[in-house]
User: Fold these one by one.
Assistant:
Number 1:
Amino acid sequence: MEISLKTIVLFGAVILTGLSAGFFYAWSVSVIQGTKRVDASTYLETMQSVNRAILNPAFFLIFFGSLILLIIGSIYQFDTGNLSFWFMLMASLLYLIGTVVVTGLGNVPLNNQLDALNLNKISSNKILEFRKYYESKWNRLHLIRTIFAVFSFLLSVAALFTQSKNI
């Protein structure tokens, strides 16, 4: 049995989107829950460190690779004339808008604001004030991107199951 590039792209899209959705979900149920239990200074220092560390090839592969393979998968599914195309197209759009755009226009600017803070040079009141501002917005945006990533993953799995017999 020969495996086509179309099949490899579809499986790759499902795997990477699943990893992305899993990453965001795991963050929601572990890191966010843990950081709620620390003081404001520790929270901001931790988030600064994490935001710097996450800018790495492994994260970029999953985050952007999902979008790239979802789009390519949609193009490959276009000629199938079945539901797999529509599932892939919707998965691509949801991931693009709800995960990539929300991250780029929401979480990243908040991370940049946090990164610009010198925590050693501001008062404890300012630290507490910034935490309230940052944490509530960041967590809300994270919830949105998590939901969209999970739905995108589910749609890509649906595309896999509705794929024509040519898989």
Note: The helical segments are 5-35, 40-53, 57-77, 83-115, 124-162.
Number 2:
Amino acid sequence: MGLRFKLDSDVLPLQAVAVFLMPMIDSHAHLDSADFDGELEGIIERARVSGISRIITIGTDLESSRRSVAIAERHDAVYAVVGWHPCTARSAPADLVTPLLEMARHPKVVAIGETGLDFHHRPSQPLDGSEGEDEIDRLAQERVFLQQLEVAAETQLNVVVHQRDAFSETIERWRPYAKKGVRAVCHCFVGTPEQAREIIELGGLVSFTGIVTFKSADRLRETVAGMPLDRLMVETDCPYLAPVPHRGKRCEPAFAREIGQTIAELKSIDWKVIEEQTNQTAMEFFRGLRV
């Protein structure tokens, strides 16, 4: 027997639930992940049934970006972001601008990324205290980040930013491009209210994952509660960081609704307001996105 949904004492098949749900956008997913191999059609259908109208799938290198574009081509509900993740910056080609500019011309590419800086995942932990390998990696990340900011400025697309243990460095490299009109969303945000305000002052956004549903994330939940409603988005970052009550399982776009509902609870507002506003924010940020 299929899953059922109870509404006003009437029991409906799950396929009918979406009729009663306001459409919602998962602003950051990795649909090209091997975790979804052979299941993508079902995952996108489950998202649709759950009321997720659009999914932004994010590239992490050139091949991942091409796969993301191909998925977007095959599915009306999916849009793509193309870029190179900082954790593999050392393997990026010297010229990242040319291939990204080519992909960015695709009508379903709506931003550049996932880019940024990550100084948490150090490539070495040398016993002699040398920082040589880490410095090489840091410089590679900065080069790749700046190239993607250049692509964003040239294409008038915004950037999806990953940062970990590199907040001030990330902000300083983005700042000159913010003055040129390049907006950034700091995805999977787990920072402080002060950091969120700094991003907002530069015209940026923050995006929250299933971490907001974790009872242990007290500081983050305080940040969420104080966020301006029009400066945040909802994301799953699937297949990672499944929200409660799915924690520990593979995450997927259908779970975005639990994240939105938790944000609504933390802000003491109706969850439909969260859905309506985050949809509007996503459509303004991801240029070319249509609902």
Note: Confidence is low (pLDDT under 50) at residues 1-20.
Number 3:
Amino acid sequence: MKHKGLLIAFQGERGAYSEEAAIKFFGNEINVIACKTMAEVFTKVENNEVDYGIVPIENSIEGSVNETYDLLVDTKLKIAGELNLRIIHCLIAHPNVDIRDIKVVYSHPQALAQCKKFLNGLSCDVIPTYDTAGSVKMIKEKGLINAAAIASERSSEIYGMSILKKGIEDSPDNYTRFLILSHNDSPFTGNDKTSIIFSTKHIPGALYNALREFAIRGINLTMIFSRPTKKTPWEYNFFVDFEGHLSEKRVKECLEGLKEQTLFIKVLGSYPKAKPN
């Protein structure tokens, strides 16, 4: 998808992986709005201040981004697309700084967790921040000579900083899945995925009976994840991704069957599957 002049909201500072994902999905000729929080991304799309929002939903190494899942419960927005972005972390500092002089490393908690092995070898203090690229911006603006940040190569270019080491993530199979937020989901393509949320009755076999609606129709689940409802202790919402589009007969029948098996069901939208990694 490439659309000149679209306005896209993302969480973080310029150079964040979310911005990189937006450019990869929509093309180079977009305009972006950097948001401090994930909730702000949702709000800007809901209020029609931007055309789309982009948010991380899960990482192949560190797992789910719980805040995004929680925000999806209450929003009226739809998921209109997804993207898998290869995450290549860099250790970034001021120009002419030697890696042996680094005393503290800043970054988003997920980025720090994805670089544990490298950080253990540095013997530095590790301080979590709200954003990867924001950490680069901070050490630049504050003149922190003995500090470094873990962020993208692009962020080093934006803020005029130097890369001390590239590819410091623990695994080469480090991908983050991003969702595209819109007021509408996407039309049928024949290679689609649908996302829903539901909760079940607190009785034996409730989840089995719900998932059986997919199995008897031959619908393949690609992800199932639970989060506390935050309303009643020990009760959970189930987030499910499955192959198929809302316009298909078997998907419509499945959702009708689910209504009989669940207390709550919310359809987040149908969208084209992300391209293979």
Note: The chain has a mean pLDDT of 94.
